[in-house]
Predict the 3D structure of the following.
Amino acid sequence: MEMTVNNVTDGKKSTLMQLVPVMLCFFAMGFVDLIGTASNYVKDQHHLTESQAGYLPLLVFFWFLIISVPTGLLMNKIGRKKTVLLSLGVTMLSLVIPICGDSLTLFVIGFSLLGIGNAIMQTSLNPLVTNLISPDKLASTLTFGQFVKAIASFLAPIVMTWGAMEVFPTFGLGWRGLFALYAIISFLSIAVLGGTPIQEEKPDKASGLWESVKLLGFPFVFLCFMAIFCHVGIDVGVNTYAPKIIMERLSVPLEEATFATSLYFIFRTGGTFVGSFCLRMMSQKLFFFISVLTMIASMVILFSCHSLGALYTGIALVGFGNSNIFAVAFSQALNNRPKERNEVSGLMIMGLFGGAVFPVIMSYCADFLGGVAAAVAVMTVGVLYLLFFTTRIKKTA
C-alpha cells in the first residue's frame, strides 16, 4: 500500500516537472501576438497605408495554412517533443533577424519566420500536453497554457512602448528591444524542454497529406476548425485595431493608444486564468456560451461608443470573452478523433490562418468604407459564428 502511494506521488511530481517546461513553451508561443503592436510601429516608421500594414499579420498567419498539416505528419515521424524543439529554434531565429536592422525587408523575413515557427509550435505543443494529461482535464490544462501564453502577449506592447520611450536601455534598438528579450527566452525554452524526458505514444499508422485534409469532411471537425478560424481572426483584429479605435475616436497618439492592446491582453490573460478553473467545475458548453455573450456585448460597445471608459470596457470584454474559445474548440476536436490527434491538431492550427484573413479584410473595409467601425463589423461576423458553434458543442469532450 505504501509503495502504491509513493508511486502515485512520484507520478504527480514527474508530471509537474514535465508540465513546467511545457508551460514555458506556451509562453514562447505567445510571442506571435507581438505582430499586432509591431505592425503599428512598422506602419508609422515606413509610412505604410492601412491596407499595406494589414498585410503584415498575413506574413505571420499565412504559414498556418501551409505548415500546419505537414507538421502533423512530421510529428508522426520524429515525435511531438522534437517538433516543438524545432519550432523554438525557428522562433528564436525570427526574433534575432529584426535586431540586425530596421529595414522593411528584415521585418518581412522576421515576421515570416515567426509565423513558420509558431505554426509548427502550436501544431505540436498542444498534442504534447495529451501525453501528460487525461482527456477530461485537457480543456482546462490547455486553457492554463493559454493563460501562460497570454502573459507573453500582454507584456509585448508594454515592453515595446517602454523601449520606444527609452524607459530601459535598449542599446539603440528602441521598441525592437522586445525581440532581443524574447529571443533569450526562446533559447531558455529550448534548453529546458530539451532536458525534460517525455514519453510519447506511437501513432497507429502514418497518414498522408490528403488523408489528413479529408478529416475536414467530418462535420464536427470542420465546425471546430471554423471556430478557431474566427477566434484567431477576432484576436488579431482586436490586437491590431484596439489602438486604432482609440486613435480615431479620441484623437490620441499611438504611444498612448497602445495601452488599449495591453488592456485587451490583461483581460484575456485573466480570462484564461479564470477559465482554467471554471472548465473544471462547469460544462464547456455553458462556459463557452457565457464567453460568446460577453463578446457580443463588446462588439456593440466598440461599434457605437465614443468615450474612453466605454471603449476600454468593450476592449476588456472581448479580451475576457475570447480568452477560452481556442481551448474549448481545440479539445473538442482532439477528443472527437482520439486516434488521429496529430493530424487533427494540424488541421485545427491551420485554422489560425484566420489571423491573416481577418486583418486584411478589416483593413480594406476601414480604407474603403470609412473608419474603424467597418472593421468592428467584420469581427462581429466571427462572433456570430461562435454563437452558432455553441449549439454544437458536445457535453463530454
In short: Residues 1-14 have pLDDT under 50 and may be disordered.
